[in-house]
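Training component of the fellowship. As part of building independent skills, the fellow (R.M.) carried out the full modelling exercise for a liganded target. The chosen ligand was zinc ion. The inputs are recorded below so that the supervisory panel can assess the work.
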Amino acid sequence: MLDIKYDSYDIEEKREVVKRTLFQESANIKSENFGKISEKDLYLLFELYDEVFLCGWFKQKFRGNIKFKLSRQLTRSAGNTRTRKDISAIKPEEVEFEVKISLNHLMNFNKAKRIKYVGGIEAASVLDSLMLVFEHELCHVIEFLVRHKSSCNKKPFMDLINNIFGHTEHTHKLVGAGEANVSEYGLKPGDSVKFRYGNSIMEGFIQKMNKKATVMCPDKHGNYIDKSGRRYVKFCVHPESFIKEG
Ligand SMILES: [Zn+2]
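Fellow's submitted model of the complex:
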């Protein structure tokens, strides 16, 4: 798609150049496991990637506009790229993209002690995960511009991202809100819990863990009925609200 192909040694070296320059130029990102980031940093990353990896491809060819955003809404995907459907029919200078990077996945990165991957590559730090997710989204933008469509589970995308960034997969194994809660609060689906609701203390079990827990509490008037005919009321509870015992 682009006439660019690097070997893994080149890619490692170029990522180091991006990191070093980022540490110098960013007001927030000063180390691998930074605790603060702003949308300005995403624009800075874009410039650095264009210069270091893409030989100024965007600077030379791209006349449109990209909005970079940090998102608290993305839960499953770590990033997201959107553009208008009729991209092939609009003037180059009117082409617009919205690239979102999930703030949750960055904040949760160190909440689980295991190896994390993005695109089949190990992410050893918050910065690694940001950069690998950014690379994935950048390839979506390139594919949209070149082919007017983009999908990361198809061959053209995988060839592109493998040639430039060495990714071998289109998925990530970062830490979602559910897993972060499991390690932060020690809670998982199936656990019995108690929490305060008005003046009463409710008892139930966790059915699902996300940012909040879905808790089923036995209640003979409840709308939810399990296989053995027991009725439950469903509650949405923040993990901090559970009453700790023992
Ligand atoms: Zn994708």
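The panel noted the following from the submitted structure. The CA atoms of residues 121 and 167 lie 6 Å apart. The chain has seven helices and ten strands.
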